[in-house]
Design goal:
It is built from 9 helices and no strands. The chain is mainly alpha-helical. InterPro entries: ABC2_memb-like.
């Protein structure tokens, strides 16, 4: 597994996936739909899979002493690393955002602890939809990405619409800075737990699909 992970990092990782980490700086844009930042994380994963198809990465990896499940495991570990790096890169900019801006976000959710919980949820939804569809046939990347984007967009719409439909959510979870911090921490924990659950389900479904796929 260690060698597969090295191979993923050195050969499969698309440069755009790392460049998109810099887009965490978009948190410094005033009044912006900040969930869009994490869409670029998903786009980076798409580029990894797309370039893998063009470079025959799957066929090359199958020549190595590795099982199909091991190949899926390595790709998921790479995806998880990229996703967590995006969150890590965003934290300093989120702190700076709350120092620079005191007005609420007019274009979406405020940048607070709960915001990151919802971002975990959205990426988890993308993982849940994209990877199982992708591993049914790794030669077809576009449609799985489209459905993954639709899941991400639907989740983002539900979060933003929920703030207006349920004023209590807006009051407790869309507070600025550290206001109502216990509720925000609960949202973060719930979002991270759902991300982990959705990613685990996606991994199991992906591994099962890829093992059944005839190369």
């Amino acid at each position: 597994m260690k060698n597969l992970l090295i191979k993923e990092w050195r050969l499969a990782l698309h440069p755009a996936a790392l460049l998109f980490l810099c887009l965490s700086s978009m948190l410094l844009i005033p009044s912006y739909p900040y969930f869009v930042i994490f869409f670029y994380t998903c786009l980076g994963l798409f580029f990894i899979c797309l370039s893998g198809r063009e470079n025959k990465d799957i066929y090359y990896t199958m020549l190595l002493p590795a099982s199909k499940r091991g190949i899926v495991t390595a790709r998921f570990l790479l995806a998880i690393l990229i996703e967590l790096l995006q969150f890590a890169a965003a934290i300093p900019f989120a702190l700076l955002h709350n120092v620079l801006y005191s007005a609420p976000n007019a274009a979406g959710m405020n940048v607070n602890t709960a915001f990151f919980g919802f971002a975990f949820l959205l990426i988890g939804l993308f993982n849940l939809v994209f990877f199982p569809k992708y591993y049914r046939n790794p030669n077809k990347v576009g449609m799985p990405f489209l459905f993954g984007c639709l899941a991400f967009a639907a989740g983002m719409t539900a979060v933003e619409a929920g703030r207006f439909a349920l004023p209590a959510i807006d009051a407790y979870l869309n507070a600025q800075g550290t206001q109502n911090l216990p509720y925000q921490l609960a949202a973060l924990a719930a979002g991270a737990a759902l991300w982990a659950l959705f990613t685990l389900i996606a991994y199991r479904r992906s591994a099962k699909s890829f093992e059944a796929f005839d190369l």
